[in-house]
Amino acid sequence: MLSKQKVFTLGLQHVLAMYAGAVIVPLIVGGALKLNGTQMAYLIAADLFTCGLATLLQIMGTKYFGSRLPVILGCTFTAVGPIIAIASTHNLATAYGAIIISGLFVVLAAPLYGKLLKFFPTIVTGSVVTIIGLSLIPVAMNNVAGGEGNADFGQPRNLLLALITLLVILAVNRFATGFLRSISVLVGLVAGTAIAYGMGIVNFSTVGDASWVSIAQPFYFGWPEFSLTAIFTMIIVNIVSMVESTGVYFAVGKVIDQKVEQKQIVNGLRSEGVAIMLGGIFNAFPYTAFSQNVGLISLSRIKTRNVIFAAGGIMIVLGLLPKLAALTTIVPNAVLGGAMIVMFGSVAVSGISILSDVDLRKDGNLLIAACSIAVGLGSATLPAMFAELPEFARMLLQNGIVSGSLTAIVLNIVLSKTKDDVQVEDNTVPVLVKESHVS
Question: Under a CB-based contact definition with an 8 Å cutoff, are residues 151 and 348 in contact?
């Protein structure tokens, strides 16, 4: 039984692991729309507050809502372009009106989507989880170099910081035991940040400038307005997020050695729909299951939902206390990148472990895995290849997880020789049985 202090520390580790991904969306959207400092501060605080609420909705679970899986929800990057486009063409109120209606769509469409899970047998789920891990690795490497667009991108000191962080995480995992081993990523982040501070890289100015208290306000940017085009666009965004979240549920099921039931996925997606609506009401963002934290569960070997509950609570507090939230931003990109290497790599290995349960010599399984992984990774690393397609097609295909998943599903239907190859039981999603080990 973990003490409250240990649960809090493990929850903080999850928050730090996903924090960069959570705040980058409001930073990009706010910058593109030329919001002032006060508006930017609100956007970040509201985002963190709603991230926490969304995560609690996901893990608490009721008869119809919540997967009860240790999953953290964060704002989806897929929504960045569409929100900027809608707000530029109309205004932010129209963007948030579209987000609210699209969240309602997710709630209502979740049961129908659940009936399509028969098209996710083990060969498909294994390929999707592998794609999730592989498509995140370029993100990790971008951070290792210091973050694209930063003046010191590729500087040797960034590579050194990332290497030190990675080595600390590996050393703690190899030589420590018990609780210390379970917080190896947090230890690596603290050690890397301390060394960066000694090198004069850490900047505390954002902490000094941040306010102490910020309360999320419904409709901060005005009452919602509605446009059919904007609503349709955000529905497409959230369909993409539903597919992405399904892959994350499968990955978490693999890591915690639990069979993921169809009902869990439907209830989880319903909760995401509610979270998306909350994002629109509090003028934040659409939310989806964060794959960043799957690898962390594998590394820490802590599967209890209490830790994710703590992480959700921490995010709510950070959303209410911007000065504390700013304190978490002092971790340099290179340090985050070093931690991401092992976390994202663990997700990819979990997918490979799922594929090890599949006979790759049978009925085109090798081709299904090979083509879907190649398409998914290719889309993630070179999204510009779809730049000339219509907008709705770009949103689907530039997301490597979605393009890879669609490839796997279609090829499984086409290449499977028997009807049984594309069916699963009514109430369960295929096996995720072998436990992955990270040394």
Answer: no
